[in-house]
Amino acid sequence: MPRYCAFFGSINVGGNRITMADLRYAFEREEFENVETVVASGNVLFDFDEQPTDGLEDLFSHMMLDRFDIRSFVAVRSAAEVLSAVEDNPFTGIGQDHLVHTMFLERQPDEAAFERMVADHAGRGPEKMALGKRALYIDYIDAAGSSKLTGAFIERRLGGRGKARNVRSLARIHSKM
User: Fold this and answer.
1) Which of 29, 59, 135, 137 would be 89's cystine partner, CB 3.0–4.6 Å?
2) What is the pTM of this model?
3) Which residues, by range, are in coiled-coil regions (predicted)?
């Protein structure tokens, strides 16, 4: 059976506290199999016999709101897509693994929106960006936490939500898939 990872946003930050045991239980109640969490930031591995769709991401978002009163964007990716998020990131192996991120995007932005975002960010920081397939690759160079290249900045300019993980975490997640 194919293995997937659901990447949850807004988990265990800003007062949205949830135990990984509770999150696993919620998946099991929805009858997903072989459920496992990786790190306490909302990465859930599970088996599913069909290709995930936007409906599956919507199901998980609704589950979070219904069961935990947490609004969360959820990106679901297959094992191959998680590996691709590391290997296709042009900054992997060049930048520091904890500063090189892949942001999983809700939808594929057009090239013009990406170019406008890069232009809008020019002069605001040293970060480097590249566009992937439903992904944005980022090298934060100095620090992600103090960067002006925030999730909100990216989401406004690309017209959709996203959830980022550093390539070190993605490699660890993929090794468990």
Assistant:
1) 137
2) 0.91
3) none
- Domains belonging to the chain, first-starting first, are 3-80 (3.30.70.1280), 81-176 (3.30.70)
The structure tokens listed for 158 are 């690309």
Tell which residue, 5, 17, 6, has the closest CA to residue 70: 17
Beta strands in the chain (DSSP E): 3-8, 33-37, 43-47, 74-78, 100-105, 128-132, 135-139, 162-166
> For residue 6, what are the β-bridge partners?
44, 76
Q: What is the pLDDT of residues 111-150, one digit of tens each?
A: 999 999 999 999 999 999 999 999 999 999 999 989 999 9
Closest to 23 (Cα-Cα) out of 64, 73, 78, 59: 64
Tokens at 146, concatenated: 């103090």
